[in-house]
């Protein structure tokens, strides 16, 4: 608290503690300011300073303030009002006082919260996808090749096994696919067959243009043109560099969350991870729509009825539903809604109708 004083109103007297800088001892001290001179009295130590010698820390609520003095000396005090008056006298605390007003203004705090949330939302919804696509397009093909090779090696050692399709069947499909295996965006398109009961009927595109078809998907098809439609869709992922974009996007999303939380360990917190995962999956839905558009245009150009894509998608939907859907009808409906939210693909019914309506 300020000492009672007969000094003129313009004088400032502040009680606190003094640290000399030469050791860690703390001594009671009084700081007085008058006529552009600041005097600090700490018993056996008396300093006469000019306002230019004193650096005042900003005010943060009612936390203690620190006045940094020459030769590493520090004056500490709880008298925030006295320090503000001292800063006003020396005209060196205007910025700090303005900052304190901004920090304690409820209206401005609410505006700042809204602006922060809006900026964060814009960054995730538009900024990250745009930046990811720009970076993916700028990366050399050699990077995509390295990522594709590494990914294939990992899949072969975990989820995939050698194909059990006969050599004749594989050769027949390779010949059927041949007209569609032209290089896309500098990447050669290669088709590989693998068995994977764990993954089931599926196909995937690696960043280097390698397309993987599972035996289960081949056996599910009733017409080879259905597999051609799937190939056109997966080629769309390669054409749009979705593999590289997804990798860059995941990295940017992780980096933004770490920047906002300031702690890598926060990423293990479900309240942080779940929104990030949902956002990443929504990006993937956009990629799937782009790949569908590419497939639809390709099939039309080659004179193949898009209904083939709709047919195998309907069969895939039934296959996955029989494998995963809960028994109760009410639970099934809720499960479908939850899967639609989490799925990396757009709602299957929407995709099927799109190809049915574009004969």
Which secondary structure elements does this structure contain, and how are they paired or packed?
Layout: E1 12-19, E2 27-34, E3 37-41, E4 46-49, E5 55-56, E6 65-68, E7 74-77, H1 80-90, H2 94-104, H3 106-138, H4 141-158, E8 161-162, H5 167-177, E9 190-195, E10 203-205, E11 210-214, H6 215-220, H7 224-239, H8 242-261, H9 270-301, H10 307-324, H11 329-342, H12 348-356
Parallel strand pairs: 9-11
Antiparallel strand pairs: 1-2, 1-7, 2-3, 3-4, 5-6, 6-7, 8-9, 10-11
Helix pairs in contact: 3-8, 7-9, 7-10, 8-9, 10-12
Short description:
The protein is of the alpha+beta class and 359 residues long.
Describe the structure.
The protein has 2 domains: 12-103, PH-domain like; 123-356, no CATH class. It starts with 11 loop residues before the first strand and ends with a helix. It is an alpha+beta fold and 359 residues long. The strands form 2 sheets. The protein has a 7-stranded antiparallel sheet with strand order 4-3-2-1-7-6-5. The protein has a 4-stranded mixed sheet with strand order 8-9-11-10, sandwiched between helices. Mean pLDDT is 81; it is low at 1-9, 277-282, 326-332 and 334-344. It is elongated, with a radius of gyration of 34 Å. The protein has helices spanning 80-90, 94-104, 106-138, 141-158, 167-177, 215-220, 224-239, 242-261, 270-301, 307-324, 329-342, 348-356, and strands at 12-19, 27-34, 37-41, 46-49, 55-56, 65-68, 74-77, 161-162, 190-195, 203-205, 210-214.
């Amino acid at each position: 608290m300020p000492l009672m004083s007969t000094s003129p109103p313009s004088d400032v007297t502040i009680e606190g503690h003094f640290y000399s800088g030469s050791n860690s001892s703390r001594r009671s001290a009084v700081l007085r300011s008058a006529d552009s001179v600041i005097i600090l009295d700490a018993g056996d130590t008396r300093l006469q300073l000019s306002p230019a010698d004193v650096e005042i820390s900003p005010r943060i609520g009612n936390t203690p303030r620190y006045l940094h003095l020459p030769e590493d000396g520090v004056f500490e005090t709880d008298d925030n009002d006295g320090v503000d008056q001292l800063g006003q006298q020396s005209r060196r605390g205007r910025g700090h006082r303005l900052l304190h007003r901004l920090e304690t203004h409820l209206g401005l705090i609410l505006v700042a919260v809204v602006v922060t949330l809006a900026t964060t939302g814009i960054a995730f919804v538009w900024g990250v996808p745009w930046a990811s696509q720009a970076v993916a397009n700028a990366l050399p093909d050699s990077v995509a090749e390295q990522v594709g090779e590494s990914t294939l090696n990992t899949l072969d050692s975990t989820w995939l096994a050698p194909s059990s399709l006969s050599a004749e069947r594989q050769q027949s499909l390779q010949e059927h696919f041949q007209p569609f295996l032209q290089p896309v965006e500098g990447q050669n398109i290669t088709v590989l067959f693998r068995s994977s009961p764990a993954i089931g009927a599926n196909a995937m595109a690696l960043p280097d243009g390698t397309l993987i078809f599972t035996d289960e998907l081949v056996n599910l098809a009733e017409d080879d043109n259905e597999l051609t439609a799937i190939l056109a869709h997966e080629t769309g992922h390669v054409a749009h560099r979705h593999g590289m974009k997804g990798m860059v996007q995941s990295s940017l999303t992780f980096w933004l969350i770490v920047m906002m939380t300031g702690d890598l360990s926060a990423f293990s917190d479900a309240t942080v991870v779940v929104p990030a995962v949902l956002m990443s999956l929504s990006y993937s839905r956009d990629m799937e729509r782009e790949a569908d558009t590419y497939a639809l245009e390709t099939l039309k150009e080659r004179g193949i009825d898009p209904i083939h894509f709709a047919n195998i998608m309907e069969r895939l939907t039934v296959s996955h539903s029989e494998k995963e859907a809960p028994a109760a009808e009410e639970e099934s409906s809720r499960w479908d809604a939850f899967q639609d939210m989490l799925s990396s693909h757009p709602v299957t019914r929407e995709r099927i109708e799109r190809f049915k309506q574009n004969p």
